[in-house]
Amino acid sequence: MNKRRRLPRSLIIISLLAITAIIVTGIMLLNRRPKRTDYITGNGVIEATEVDLGSKVPGRILQLLTDEGQLIHRGQLIAVLDHGEQQGQVTSAKGGVTTAKQDLAQLRAGSRPQEIQSARAQYDAAVSALRQAQARLSLLQAGTRPEEIAQARATVAQARAQYSLVAAGPRPEAIAQLRAQYRQAQANVSLVRAGPRAEEIAQLAAALAQARSTAVNAETEFRRAQFLYEQGAIPGEQLDTARTQRDVAQAQVQQAQQRLLQAQHGPRTQEVQQAEAAAEAVRQQLLAAERGSRPQEIAQARAQVTAAEQRLREAINGPRPQEIQEARAAVAQATDQTRVAKAALDLAILGPRKEAIGSAKGRVEQAGGGLQTAKAALSQTKIYSPTDGRVTLRAAEPGEISAAGAPIIRFAELQTVWLRVYVPEPQVGLLKIGQRAVVTTDAFPNRQYTGTVTEINETAEFTPKNVQTREEREKLVFGVKVTVNNPNQELKPGMPGDATIYVRETHKR
User: Fold this and answer.
1) In this predicted structure, what is the pLDDT of residue 67?
2) Do 309 and 292 share a structural domain?
């Protein structure tokens, strides 16, 4: 049996020290080798873009079709505003466009024959008025003719004769005639008050009986004609004739009854009053004739004589300078009116100018722009979602009046969210826009969401206070925005999340 040789204790100690030295040296060498950093981690809170959705026009909210927390889709109707005012503006703008187009078409078509004819008629009327004014001026400048003086003298003689008759008063024959008229009027009053005689009443009763007999015969004839018409023996025209004869006979019966009733009841108060008023009017005329001419009538006749004598003196003296001046002014005014009418006629013949047509085109375009503006305002009364998202706030309720630009709802776009993480200053040099990242959340620990670095802050800041340890909060960091695709809209704003950014860069420690 072989026995093992035992090494000396000192040799064992030396060997352990050598091994320990080798290990320490290896560790130091490993620490001096460059260390590869493939990713950077950080945490933050999921955020999303929130949009305030409202209308460009004010109005009362009629319907609000979403609630807080509800998922909405692109093009979905969100709210409806009262559009009565905007609809009226659209209607008014349409009318303005129609009017502007009609005006443009009218200018392009030129003057109608009726317009030219009307302008020519106005020009002819102005020329005629000018000729009359010129003729009057010529007469005034020529002075008064002998025939006019003779006519003025005849008017003076007639006025003086009338004055003599008025001053002398009424003649006895006229008074006698008025007395006879008054007696006749009194007799008429007595006849009206006495009413119709018995013979007249009997005559009216006989006329009523005759009318009734005629009506009975007409009714019988109508019924016979109606029967024959129903049997097809006579045409419809013959039936219409029988009906008309029956209606006329019945009307005659009613008229005869009315006349008989009036005669039986005696004269009406109105007829008596009319007869008495006529008699009183004749009596007043008789009294005035018996009293003679009144001072007012004499003064009026004297005034007519004075006026006739004044016209005679003016005719003898000829026209006054003021009249000639007024006539010249009338000629000048008529000349101006003729010139204006001639210009209007020339414009009607030539038609509208190119500038007028261009201006009309501008009004058409202006009216069209107004219509587009009105339609745009009308479209703003219905609010649609511009994209998919989830409602986070109802800023108004149905029945409230929303101001222009005021938010009605607020929604978050969840198709794409982001996570803002904070990277220490020594590592920020490893980051680039577009680097891939993976985001995880506590709500879905087994799922990973693909993200991209979309923003790196240009300036450093101290770590936000929501970082847990005091040592981390005292470091300078750079904010990094990681945009995350959220196709299923599982990530919600406010969720805490962790991001792993793959930098794939080497760095010597």
Assistant:
1) 87
2) no
Asked whether residue 177 falls in the same domain as residue 288, the answer is yes
Q: Which domain holds residue 486?
A: 36-53+393-507
Q: Which of 371, 494, 388 is nearest to 441 (CA)?
A: 494
Strands 35-54 and 77-81, by their bridges, are unpaired
Find all residues with CB under 8 Å of 476, minimum gap 6, and list them.
424, 425, 460, 461, 462, 463
Residue 490's Cα: distance from chain center in Å?
A: 50
| Number of domains composing the chain | 4
Using CA atoms, how far apart are residues 310 and 320, in angstroms rounded to an integer?
14
- What are residue 410's DSSP bridge partners? 52, 393
Q: Please name the amino acid found at residue 67.
A: D
Same domain, 401 and 486: yes
* Domain identity same for 277 and 329: no
Report whether 501 contacts 429 (CB < 8 A).
no
Residue 483 has a pLDDT of 93
- At which residue do the structure tokens 């009262």 appear? 82
Specify the pLDDT at position 411.
Answer: 86
d(CA 349, CA 329): 31
Beta carbons of 69 and 47 less than 8 angstroms apart: no
**Could you tell me how far CA 105 lies from the centroid of its own chain?**
24
- Do 256 and 191 share a structural domain? yes
Per the structure block, which two tokens stand in for 230?
């129903």
The answer as to whether 60 is a domain residue is no
DSSP state of 8: P
Burial class (CB in 10 A: 0-12, 13-18, 19+), 415: middle
With residue 336 as reference, give the H or E element that holds it.
helix 321-350
User: Which residues, given as ranges, of the chain have pLDDT below 70?
Assistant: 1-18, 21-37, 109-111, 144-145, 165, 168-169, 171, 194-195, 197, 266-268, 289-294, 353, 463-474, 505-509
- Whole-model pTM: value is 0.42
Distance CA 457, CA 108 (A): 65
State residue 506's pLDDT score. Answer: 42
* Cβ neighbours, 10 Å, residue 209: 11
Structure tokens at 273: 């009053």
Residue 428: in which H helix or E strand, if any?
Answer: none
